[in-house]
């Protein structure tokens, strides 16, 4: 599935291809109607750029290639067309026509920006430096050969070099900042994610609970514990125990929030209204049963303690209630959900036996 960033880039590139077609069409028409000595250059380069814009727009639209590949192809096309202007003028005309300096300067800056956006830091720096030095040398040779104002040209090229250095610094900072942001996001994700199951870890679960506590809606909080997990590990080994935890996590992650709270203990949060949340928790256990059924030649069951958390109630108190309910579920025979404080804070606790709510159910 295409990401939002990739979709946005493709949209911008479609617009860029459209404006590129309009520009090349206007320059080609101007060259056909005029008698400028530079018309040959435009009649050769502009149709080539137009063909590339059409091909690129088609490829972007049907998504047959990555945008990165098109960016590098565009860099080659733009560089060849923009930087061939100066050698053409010097070889074909013998001088740089009036007004061409500005066009050459725009072409060089465009190539530099595309190079920094497309290439790696070192490659872009080498690419832009090569273009700049070649451009500067040809401009100075043209002035010296035609008794032109070479000192003014030199000053202009030094100012251009300063601009390119600033561009290089800006893009290096941008790349470094983007990498630092990505690294920070990755580290933050790792700090809140359980490495084995991919669920939230305890810290991530606590952060979620803190966030929910500031809201105006209640939620269902449940603690689930794998029954006889130590015996399962002893019988089948720790790798199989890890496989069981991952399978359970895949089933439980359908909840609004799920965290691996401890070794074989999971925190489950459902933000539906209370009656629906209770029903959803029961359905979630059956769904999880489908994920682990037949995984091992023995039943894999969960005991759960669940409580409804009213708005403003400290989650630590609710967690203690769910923990006590979990102990009651274990003491009552395991493979069951024990509800406490459902919907109304003062309602008596209710319970569901394993025959109706457990993972190893027959219903």
Secondary-structure blueprint of this entry?
Blueprint: H1 4-33, H2 39-62, H3 67-83, H4 85-93, H5 100-118, H6 121-145, H7 150-192, H8 202-213, E1 219-226, H9 229-236, H10 238-252, E2 257-260, E3 265-270, H11 274-292, E4 302-309, H12 315-331, E5 337-340, E6 351-352, H13 354-357
Parallel strand pairs: 4-5
Antiparallel strand pairs: 1-3, 1-4, 2-3, 5-6
Helix pairs in contact: 1-2, 2-3, 3-5, 5-6, 5-7, 6-7, 9-10, 10-11
Keywords: Membrane, Transmembrane, Transmembrane helix
Transmembrane segments: 12-34, 40-62, 74-94, 100-117, 124-142, 154-173
Protein name: GGDEF domain-containing protein
* Overall mean confidence score, pLDDT: 82
Give, in spatial order, the strands making up the sheet with the most strands.
2-3-1-4-5-6
Percent in strands: 5-15%
Distance between the termini: 37 Å
Give me the oligomer status. Answer: single chain
Provide the structure class. alpha+beta
What low-confidence regions span 5 or more consecutive residues with pLDDT below 50?
345-363
Helix content range: 55-70%
Give the overall form.
Answer: elongated
Helix count, DSSP H or I runs of 4 or more residues: 13
- What letter string, H or E per element, gives the SSE order? HHHHHHHHEHHEEHEHEEH
């Amino acid at each position: 599935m295409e990401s939002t960033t990739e979709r946005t880039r493709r949209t911008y590139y479609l617009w860029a291809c459209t404006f590129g077609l309009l520009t090349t069409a206007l320059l080609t028409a101007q060259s056909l109607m005029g008698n400028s000595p530079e018309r040959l250059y435009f009649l050769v380069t502009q149709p080539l750029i137009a063909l590339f814009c059409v091909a690129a727009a088609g490829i972007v639209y049907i998504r047959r290639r990555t945008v990165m590949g098109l960016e590098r192809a565009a860099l080659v096309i733009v560089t060849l067309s923009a930087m061939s202007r100066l050698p053409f003028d010097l070889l074909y005309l013998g001088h740089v026509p009036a007004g061409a300096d500005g066009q050459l300067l725009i072409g060089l800056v465009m190539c530099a920006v595309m190079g920094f956006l497309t290439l790696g830091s070192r490659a872009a720096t080498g690419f832009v430096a090569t273009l700049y030095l070649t451009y500067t040398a040809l401009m100075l040779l043209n002035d010296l050969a035609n008794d032109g104002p070479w000192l003014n040209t030199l000053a202009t090229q030094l100012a251009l070099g300063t601009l390119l250095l600033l561009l290089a610094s800006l893009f290096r900072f941008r790349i470094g900042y983007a990498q630092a942001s990505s690294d920070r996001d990755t580290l933050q994700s790792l700090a809140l994610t359980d490495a084995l199951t991919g669920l939230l870890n305890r810290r991530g679960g606590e952060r979620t609970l803190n966030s929910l506590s500031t809201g105006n809606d209640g939620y269902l909080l449940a603690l689930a514990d794998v029954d006889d997990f130590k015996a399962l590990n002893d019988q089948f080994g720790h790798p199989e125990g890890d496989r069981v935890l991952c399978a359970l996590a895949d089933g439980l992650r359908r909840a609004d929030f799920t965290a691996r709270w401890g070794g074989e203990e999971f925190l489950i949060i459902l933000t539906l209204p209370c009656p629906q949340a209770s029903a959803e928790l029961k359905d979630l256990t059956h769904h999880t049963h489908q994920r682990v059924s037949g995984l091992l030649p023995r039943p894999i069951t969960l005991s759960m303690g669940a409580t409804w958390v009213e708005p403003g109630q400290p989650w630590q108190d609710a967690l203690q209630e769910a923990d006590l309910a979990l102990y009651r579920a274990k003491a009552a025979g395991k493979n069951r959900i024990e509800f406490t404080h459902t919907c109304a804070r003062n309602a008596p606790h209710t319970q569901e036996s394993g025959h109706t709510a457990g993972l190893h159910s027959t219903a």
